[in-house]
């Protein structure tokens, strides 16, 4: 099942990469299960998911390092499914950088151009432009081991970009960098991608990285794409519980649904703006912690009832500096999380307090039942792309 966000894809005349029913088996194991994917030219697209979900295998099939078991891969409309890597207009940046240690930075960057027969002076002129683009002017005569991890990563990027590929594949390129350098490289990479206008397909298991850089992202689970769209849409209206929880903390409320609507275990009604109540067993309602409103109640009191609210007991309050996290327990046992920005006007709550937990129907979403035999069910209705005011 794939949920797409056509509106979020950049308007482009041509698709840079198209995957039609692409799968890959290793013996009996399915690494990638019939995925369809279309990337617009100039798009920054992130393939996101936990270890082993099939991200790298997908990337390797696009790069030509792995043959699909079924399906077709096209680059700018041309079928490249069976072409070897060097006959595809694609470059790959790996986590390991794969720089030549005995060559200078400049020679590393000119290497591919020289092999293609570009004259030394022209190759060096282009290489220096790209070293400048990645912030490494003046580093040309150094060798890779005389550079930091972040600088080596930039050399690998310059070396990939200097060939002007139509598509750049990046496989966890920041995996070896520490958190602070990663953060600044994310901003750099986004700037560089905008400047060169090349389509980027970026593989990562880091949801923050994917959400902060990508125009669109796809969340993979067990070889399947479970959701795909603009980061804010996938975060605000995830298609499945797996996607909701992979992208951040999510409160998942059990509900019973019938023709009269959805109800929490305490009987309070729940509605989701813009969505009709689904029928059948096992549906849940998701709501992000920062969307919950907490209102203190007299000890032992219950909320006055009404839609999209319940009563809960505060079990823990954690001060996090910019925000405070409250952990709560609903009367039927579900543990809830609420985040509040510390802007100086919030009411203090303490462990043991009884509070009303409420939320706006525009901020919640239905989550389809997950069937253990089929962890990737198709929802009855596709979640709508919806702009939600910050
Ligand atoms: N050459 C291979 N032979 C057998 N199984 C493989 C091979 N390559 C990958 N797999 C299996 O295919 C599945 C998907 O692997 P893949 O490397 O694509 O995952 P991933 O999402 O990139 O994970 P990670 O984030 O850990 O790199 C895994 O179960 C993996 O063990």
From TrEMBL:
Residues 364-390 are annotated as: Disordered. Gene3D superfamilies: 2.40.50.100, P-loop containing nucleotide triphosphate hydrolases (3.40.50.300). One of its GO terms (molecular function) is ATP binding. Residues 369-380 have a biased composition (Pro residues). Keywords: ATP-binding, Nucleotide-binding, Transport. Coiled coil: none annotated. Residues 17-247 form the ABC transporter domain. InterPro entries: AAA+_ATPase, ABC_SmlMolc_Importer, ABC_transporter-like_ATP-bd, ABC_transporter-like_CS, Mo/tungstate-bd_C_term_dom, P-loop_NTPase, Transp-assoc_OB_typ2. It comes from the Bacteria. Residues 381-390 have a biased composition (Acidic residues). The keyword Nucleotide-binding applies. This is ABC transporter ATP-binding protein. The lineage of its organism: Bacteria, Bacillati, Actinomycetota, Actinomycetes, Micrococcales.
């Amino acid at each position: 099942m794939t949920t797409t966000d056509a509106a979020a894809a950049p308007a482009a005349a041509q698709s840079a990469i198209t995957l039609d029913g692409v799968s890959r088996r290793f013996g009996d194991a399915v690494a990638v299960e019939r995925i369809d994917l279309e990337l617009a030219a100039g798009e920054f697209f992130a393939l996101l998911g936990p270890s082993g979900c099939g991200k790298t295998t997908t990337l390797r099939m696009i790069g030509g390092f792995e043959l699909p078991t079924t399906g077709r891969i096209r680059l700018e409309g041309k079928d490249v499914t069976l072409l070897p890597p060097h006959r595809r207009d694609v470059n790959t940046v790996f986590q390991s950088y794969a720089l030549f240690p005995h060559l200078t930075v400049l020679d590393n960057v000119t290497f591919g151009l020289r092999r293609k027969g570009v004259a030394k002076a022209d190759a060096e002129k282009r290489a220096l432009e790209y070293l400048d683009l990645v912030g490494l002017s003046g580093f040309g005569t150094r060798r890779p081991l005389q550079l930091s991890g972040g600088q080596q990563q930039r050399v690998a990027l310059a070396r990939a970009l200097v060939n002007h590929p139509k598509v750049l594949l990046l496989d966890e390129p920041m995996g070896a960098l520490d958190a602070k350098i990663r953060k600044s490289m994310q901003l750099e990479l986004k700037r560089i991608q905008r400047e060169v206008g090349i389509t980027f397909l970026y593989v990562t298991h880091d949801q923050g990285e994917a959400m902060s850089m990508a125009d669109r992202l796809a969340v993979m689970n067990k070889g399947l794409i479970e959701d795909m769209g603009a980061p804010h849409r996938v975060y605000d209206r995830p298609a499945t519980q797996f996607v909701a929880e992979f992208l951040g903390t999510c409160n998942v409320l059990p509900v019973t649904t019938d023709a009269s609507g959805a109800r929490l275990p305490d009987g309070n009604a729940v509605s989701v703006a813009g969505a009709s109540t689904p029928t059948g067993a096992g549906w849940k309602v998701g709501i992000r912690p920062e969307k919950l409103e907490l209102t203190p109640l007299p000890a032992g009191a219950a909320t006055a009832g009404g839609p999209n609210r319940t009563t809960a007991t505060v079990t823990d309050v954690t001060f996090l500096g910019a925000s405070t996290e409250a952990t709560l327990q609903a009367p039927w046992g579900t543990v809830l999380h609420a985040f509040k920005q510390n802007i100086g006007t919030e009411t203090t709550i303490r462990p043991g307090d009884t509070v009303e937990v409420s939320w706006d129907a525009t901020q919640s979403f239905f989550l389809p039942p997950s069937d253990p035999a089929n962890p990737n069910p198709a929802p009855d209705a596709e979640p709508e792309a919806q702009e939600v005011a910050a």
